[in-house]
Amino acid sequence: MKDLLNLEYNKFRLDNGLEVVLYKSTNLPIAAVNIWYKTGSANEKKGKTGFAHLFEHMMFQGSKNVPKEMHFRYIQEAGGTLNGSTSLDRTNYYETVPSNYLEMALWLESDRMGFLLPALTQEKLDNQKDVVMNERRQRYENQPYGLAWEKLFANLYPENHPYHWPTIGWMDDIEKFELKDVSDFFKTYYAPNNASLVIGGDFATDKAIELVNNYFGGIPGNIDIPPVEQSKPALAKPKKIIVPDNIQLPRIYFAWHSDEIFGPDDAKLDILSEILTSSKNSRLHKTLVFDKQIAQDVTSFQYSGKLSGSFIISATAKPGYNLDEIKKNIFETIDNIAQNGITPIELQRARNGVKSTFVYSLQNLDKLVNQINYYNTYLGNPNYFKEDLLRYESVTTDDIKQVVNTYLKNNFIELHFIPKR
To answer: Nearest to residue 382, comparing CAs of 1, 3, 15, 19?
Structure first.
């Protein structure tokens, strides 16, 4: 535990601006390569959404020296695993391979960072455009409650805000992807000075430094990366949206503006979500699911973005019960905490839950290396583990009462999913 919270690492920056963090662990003969590009759907603009997510697909379609689909094949034939993901503020790619294949993994990542465009064709774009459109249909439009996230954010944030559109993009925008726009997006944001590379596992430090310099050092940076700036959003009044859907049970969602990632109230809101819905003894679960048995489930979470945060609560009604009854009980619980606060036992249980989940997740090298990159990307400090846990340990009962009054007493989005008649 002590070592986990005080990692030894090497950090350096190449002349082209690429930040590199090396973390050695000889527990297993494997190596993890994890790269975060500081670009996500927030770097897009109205009418041209979905580019960041598109590249999560395009980056596996071949580059100058790697044929189409071979990135997957090379890694998997070596006995490794790989994937990528996109969010509002970043896109990441990662591989875990046997240690003797570290050089191959670095070569693959460097080739698509520096040499993707020579292999980017209209045929590949059209192919992946169709893939993304099908993904949107399957995971969003034809999935029960699948449009909830974009309905919440499209109403919580105004049209000109970078968090207004979904990460996958609007369907109309995806259909209109053009090769020049896609190429320009890559040139702008997929630059070494807009990325953070973390290598973890069993390797020789000197050799890893040599490999990083050899494969990434010659890739030019981009000094013209436009910043994403936005004032704090606020809702002028509460807003209620009703969405008929092909579902059996109605579900209700609430969304409030909250604190941004690593803001002063961010950890307090995480603790609040633990107190509300994390276990059978949590406030909303006990009331809605166990005592009154009017809900199938209830969940809450603090979603922390670089520009802003959002606090979300959702609950699915049991057959025979309506969403207004669930809403009444949710707000009675919120009002109770706003007026009377919580107990020290509730607080300690929540802090223990956060701590155990956090520490357990870091037993896996992939997740540990990704967490290092998370800290390095947002804070410039790869070893923020101890400070991060202290954010939660320092939360008090008064803090929970304060964040409820600061955020959950404000205007909110109320979203109802109801069965189609």
So the answer is: 19
